[in-house]
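Morning, I've got a small favour to ask if you have a moment. The fold is given in discrete form, as structure tokens running alongside the sequence. I'd be grateful if you could look everything over and explain what you see. No rush at all, and the record is pasted right below.
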Amino acid sequence: MRLGLILYFCYVSFLFITWLYHITISMLNIRRIAPFILTLLVGLPWHASAVELNVEGLDGDLESNVEAYLSAIDESEYSTSLRFQSRIEDNISKALKALGYYQPDIQFTIAEDLSALTVNVTPGAVTLIEQSLLDILGEAKNDEDFAKLVAQSQLKVGMPLNHSHYDAYKSSLRNLAMQKGYFDGKFVATTLKVAPEHQQAFIDITYDSGMRYHFGEVNIEGSQIEVDRVQSLVPFDKGEPYQAQKVGELNQKLSNTEWFSSVHVEPQLAEVGKQRELPMAVILAPQSENQVETGLGYSTDTGPRGTLSWKKPWINQYGHSFRTKLSISQPEQTATASYKIPLEDVLNEYYEIKYGMKNTNKLDTQSLENNLAVERHWQLESGWHRTVFLRYLYEDFIQADVSNRSKMLLPGISFSRARTRGGAMPMWGDKQVLTLEATNKNIGSDADLFRLQGRTTWVRSIGENHRGLGRIDVGAVYTEELDKVPPSLRFFAGGDNSLRGYGFESISPKDSNGKLTGGQYLVTSTLEYQYRITGDWWFATFVDYGDAWIDAPDWKMGRGVGVRWVSPVGPIRLDFAWPQDEKELKEFRFHFTLGPDL
């Protein structure tokens, strides 16, 4: 028993002496091992001091790609530990390999106070494509679009290897095959081999497209409109080679009719492998028969304004539609109604019967106007929209000191075209409208006249931040009896979309009492420069120039600055403008407009 206790005591004493020995040795070498101990400590999860990570030696795409890979690591995880260094090295290596750099040299430097970790990267030599086999089999072998895709690929011999180009090329093959109806397409070979020590890459991508499918029968379901009307919108013929673009075009056309609440067009892919012609399924759901909208707004020209509109997108199986709108403001109250009868080309050719009534009481004009018109519309191959019309105008008016009731039967023709590239604030576009109408006493009108009115607008840009707008309006009424011509056919200038800095339609010739008479001629123009401040906000500066006259023009100019904002409900324009003859800048006019430039 005593012998056991003695042995146990000797064993414990031996352990204690050994422990003291190691402590002593460690103390003697503490200066040497301190950095290692601290490095381990800062890597522990409970350590809270911030560490700055710096990557040096890279630029351009290499720097951007490395930053993208490292962004996946939260800054709270930064440390100087060996584990963290290994993680950083792995991410940098992957980022460089993606761009063809397989043998980088990566070195780490730790700040003396352990507050920063610097990574010095030498990317090394880039891997070049030594062999590139890009083959197309099947019917697409002779397809020009596939040949163009191969020719434009960035996987040619001698080019630097970039994994994104490799993946993009394969995706482009698949997408093009689906777009052009090669639904049996598949890859026969997709290999990318790299010899890092020789900086060489070997690529083999072979795609077998199989046969190209064609459009088959178009099966229409759920339409409340007669099938022949819907079929007239189909932009392809049975047996024509499949193109996804034409499927999208059909979808867009069906939506534009406003007859349907939902439109779904797709090929019957279940028939793939059974026959070359694929039936097309068109699944439709009727639009609601009645749509009512209300609105409140404000314009500097008309003040507060309320609107109420009622629309019937379809009335019968022939696709006829009806709409009416009521707009009320202090100076003007307007009610309009129209009935549309589509023809064989339902979107581009149609008749429209319109009636409108407008009461005006502003400045020196009091008028009650009634219009009844019948119009025939065509969409020309050139892109111009042509309208031939006959309208009957009855207007009871007082203009200046002249009171009259005027009846006019006005046959006419108009041409319009709008082209844009971009969204609500297009960076390129133009719009033209030209209207010609005439009448004669022999057909029941109170005066002989010929009237011309036109507008052209251009939008052009330089880069993404500089945008210019130009606009010209012209008008002329040729008549010997201006007193019998109602105010709605005369010309007035001034306002939001004319000469800013002047009141709405406040520019016109005046009689001996200084009252506005309205002009026989009109020319107004606008030059505007816009600069993007940030995002959807733009600064604008502009000059407007023009006049409305009878004998000779007295040119007037408005100038100012403004702000443009592409809001969720459309572009909003806010302008501060001064007229030419105003000396005090405090006497500006405020213009607020909602709507596009074109």
Remarks:
- The chain has eight helices and 25 strands.
- Confidence is low (pLDDT under 50) at residues 24-49.
